[in-house]
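User: Watch each token:
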Amino acid sequence: MTEFPQKPILLTGASGNLGRMLAKALATEGFALKLTDIAPFPDPLPAGASFTRVDLNDGVALLRLAEGCGTILHFGGVSVERPFEEVLGPNIRGLYHVYEAARREGARVVFASSNHSIGFHERSETIDADCDFLPDGYYGLSKAYGELMGRMYWHKHGVESVFIRIGSAIPEPVDARMLASWLSFPDLARLIVRTVVTETLGGCRVIWGASANERMTWWGKDGREQLGWAPRDSADGFAGQLAGKVSGDPVTERYMGGAYCAIEYSRKD
């Protein structure tokens, strides 16, 4: 059993793949959870958890749901590249509602950011967490916006945030790119626990969301030391079967964001 603050945790996006995994993992650790999503929760509710269907566009409903919470784990919203109008509501307006709820409750926000916020950095680079945002689409742009909103809420309102720039969080890597970018479910769950139980952040912290992969040479310094987190898993055991599994597309293979960079790519140089 993990020592943890007594206030419950609000988890948005609870019905998605990562939300469902985190709900189970956090409940096992003994946390009290308020789960929410626009879609029904497809699994049996974990012990100590409740579920309420809420649209992130409904700020009043989200404020009510966040009452009494000490941490908001924001994993809700559009989770893949989509047209701007589809991203706008849940990922931009919805994020504002999350931060307003955090401000009113004095809660910490843990934001599921993405490698797509910096996707147009080239794979030949090694970048630290304070690098320039180079989003590779509207989804990545919304994640860069989310990190900037979090920083504004820290400086203006004292709301602490952790931004996890998730690489490829799936059960197993499936191509050569993921030999670098893969983040195992257990590594993510352990990171989330640390974001909740760490007593003081003193601002906003960016974490590169990747496991201990030998090929992860793209992403350098971040804020993990303050959280006391280090990944334990690795994609290296999949190298034999995946090292040659590449797309053949030069844009996809050049940039950290992979296939998202190639979507509607129209540059001629």
Notes: The first helix runs from residue 17 to 28.
